[in-house]
Design brief:
Elements lengths: L2 H66 L17
Length: 85
């Protein structure tokens, strides 16, 4: 084999190996990014469920307080709230 053909073979082989490595690296990076997206979505769903549970608890407390207390609009004033004298 001539020297030029050996250099061509080595260059082509090196290029092919490099290309395979870069494609593999790109696939791994894409897989990691997709997994991070799934983890982020699961965290967002967990936070949403917690917020919904807090909202429901606040709604129940509001209902209990409305049963016990009388709530006024504040149109009549009456001086009950904030009359410090």
């Amino acid at each position: 084999m001539s020297r030029a053909s050996k250099i061509t073979l080595a260059g082509t082989s090196l290029g092919a190996v490099t290309l395979v490595y870069l494609v593999h690296y790109g696939q791994q990076a894409e897989k990691a990014a997709m997994h991070a997206g799934v983890v982020r979505d699961m965290e967002q769903q967990r936070v949403k469920k917690e917020r919904q549970a807090d909202f429901e608890m606040q709604r129940e407390l509001e209902g209990e307080y409305k049963k016990v207390q009388t709530v006024q609009d504040g149109e009549g004033g009456g001086g009950k709230a904030g009359a410090g004298g």
